[in-house]
Design brief:
By secondary structure, the protein is α/β, with parallel strands linked by helices. 39% of the residues lie in helices and 17% in strands. It is globular.
């Protein structure tokens, strides 16, 4: 498609472009879009979390430095591509990693280091709150971090005046507004999907816990105000504009949409915000986000409950392991080719092996593997051991070998999803896929469709990511018609005519995956024995013989 550079330049100069900025775990990314929602320019800034005092964290001065650097990169891309300065926007949106713990006193002083979603130090609080609320409270949720700080009697808790997430913090320093989009807020504290606000019963229960511990604040007073997609969440202040653009070119007064979490922007970027749709990200880890038609009947530790940016209930299944072990095997085959004197690109090796897997037996020929490099809470493992097992009469060939590693990469996800499908009767019409598993066209989709027994679609635009998703939410705030839902806006204005590359489930593949899952579930005892017997190697400088290692 030919770009009308003149029209784009005019849109940028006259403030008709929207900007989204997302703070991810390793990169801060900015995407500028036009009125047609097509990306016009991008910017980025690389950063890394720190492990300080046994806490995974980012320093807030790094957050500010990263915002400035990312915006500078975007402005330079605009200048180099279109020959104009970026001075005004139609709208702006901020997104960030969900959950975590950012606390300040009533004067805005930070009280404790930022504790990110990656920290698993709130086990006691998570378990107690889940029992008290009769509602799943994962360790990474903000309320779990707050309650754990209370249980640990940390001195700063008495002085808390504001508790927020990363996106909420950035939005606050840009606008002065202590607000949060409902999707991100649902990872802080449980939501009431009828009122689109924090659950009042659970607020009362937590207030009682705080009062019993001697704290004078009330939870609703320290949490950010909840907003839904389409609402205006303040405007860029002079200080905020100066932080993003120290050159002074960017004007203040730009309206901002509610800040959101990366899960919500991922749903937006894949057009999976309406009930009976969902998206799955499959790479090193794998997680699914399924938009529900109603609340679940029971509480499951395997299922997290959050919302879309519009406030509809979402069931999230998050698994620690997906393709890492599979990638290691593919790398081994690459080493073999090198040793034989054959040179092949990694992408070609993946493509050949993945397509070969499609020719294997539907149930993987009786083979079994577990790609557990790490623990897997869905199946009850604190640690993992990559494992491959076969019977003497299993059909052991290359096609089945690769096929079983593809299947097992989704084994834990399938375990969690079956809770939704088989125990709760959740219906799903379409699943959107993104991530490394889907890079080889058609193969990852076929395996996912077999596992979930639903059509799986991959869109070209899904690769634009969460920064594009929050830019879409910023655009929705400005350009939606009166009463137009986010679902309608995305379906008819952003993704109209784009169905992506869709793969339908094959009944024989689905039956084969179910047969594999019976073997997978029974074989968890073998994986558990491997964890118990295969202990980590000793630290450097000591040696054990093989018998000693397994004692």
């Amino acid at each position: 498609m030919d770009l009308d550079i003149g029209a784009i330049r005019d849109a940028i100069e006259n403030g008709r472009a929207s900007l989204g900025i997302e703070l991810g775990s390793t990169r801060i990314k900015a995407v500028l879009i036009g009125e047609d929602h097509v990306p016009l320019a991008t910017g980025g800034y690389d950063w890394e979390n720190r492990f300080e005092d046994r806490i995974w964290t980012y320093r807030l001065e790094e957050v500010k430095k990263g915002l400035t650097g990312c915006y500078r990169s975007l402005a330079e891309d605009v200048k180099n591509t279109y020959g104009v300065e970026l001075t005004v926007l139609s709208s702006l949106g901020i997104s960030g990693m969900m959950h975590g713990y950012l606390v300040f006193d009533k004067w805005g002083k930070q009280l404790a280091p930022f504790r990110t979603w990656r920290n698993t130090i709130t086990g006691e609080a998570s378990a107690r709150l889940t029992e008290t609320f009769d509602y799943p409270i994962p360790q990474r949720w903000s309320i779990a971090h707050l309650y754990q700080s209370m249980l640990d009697q940390e001195d700063h808790v008495k002085d808390i005046g504001f508790l927020t997430t990363l996106s909420g913090y950035v939005h606050w320093i840009l606008t002065g507004q202590k607000v949060l989009g409902i999707g991100d807020a649902s990872g802080m504290f449980p939501m009431d999907i009828k009122t689109r606000d924090y659950n009042r019963r659970m607020l009362g229960q937590f207030n009682q816990l705080a009062a019993d511990a001697g704290y004078s604040w009330r939870l609703a007073d320290i949490l950010p105000k909840v907003l839904t997609a389409g609402e205006q969440a303040g405007v860029l202040t002079a200080e905020g504009a100066g932080l993003l653009d120290p050159s002074g070119r960017l004007k203040q007064g730009i309206p901002l949409c509610p800040p959101e979490g990366d899960a919500g922007t991922g749903m937006t970027a894949t057009n999976s915000v309406k009930p009976r749709t969902g998206n799955v990200s499959a790479g090193t880890s794998v997680f699914s986000m399924i938009v529900l038609e109603k609340e679940l009947a029971h509480v499951y530790k395997e299922i997290d409950l959050v919302t879309t940016p519009a406030g509809d209930l979402v069931a999230m299944v998050h698994c620690n392991n997906c393709t890492s072990d599979l990638n290691a095997w593919v790398s081994l085959f690459g080493e073999f080719l090198d040793s034989m004197g054959f040179k092949a690109e990694a992408g070609q090796i993946f493509s050949v092996l993945y397509h070969l897997a499609l020719t294997g037996d539907k149930d993987c020929g009786g083979l079994l593997s577990y790609g557990y490099l790490a623990g897997e809470h869905i199946t009850g493992f604190d640690e993992g051991r990559p494992l491959f097992v076969r019977m003497p009469d299993s059909r052991f060939n290359l096609a089945n070998f690769i096929r079983v590693h593809l299947f097992t990469s989704l084994g834990a996800l399938k375990t969690g999803m079956d809770i939704l499908f088989k125990k709760e009767g959740v219906k799903l019409d379409l699943l959107f896929g993104h991530g490394g598993l889907f890079k080889t066209k058609g193969v990852g989709q076929s395996v996912m469709a077999a596992a979930m027994n639903v059509p799986v679609s991959v869109m070209d635009t899904a690769g634009e990511g969460g920064a594009w998703g929050i830019a879409l939410l910023a655009s929705y705030m400005i350009y939606r018609e009166e009463g137009e839902t986010l679902e309608h806006y995305l379906e008819n204005r952003v993704f109209s005519g784009e169905s992506g590359n869709q793969v339908m489930p094959d009944a024989r593949d689905t039956a084969g995956f179910e047969e594999f899952m019976e073997r997978y579930t029974r074989g968890l005892a073998v994986e558990r024995a491997a964890v118990e017997v295969m202990k980590p190697f000793p630290v450097s400088g000591t040696r054990l013989n093989p018998i000693d290692r397994i004692k």
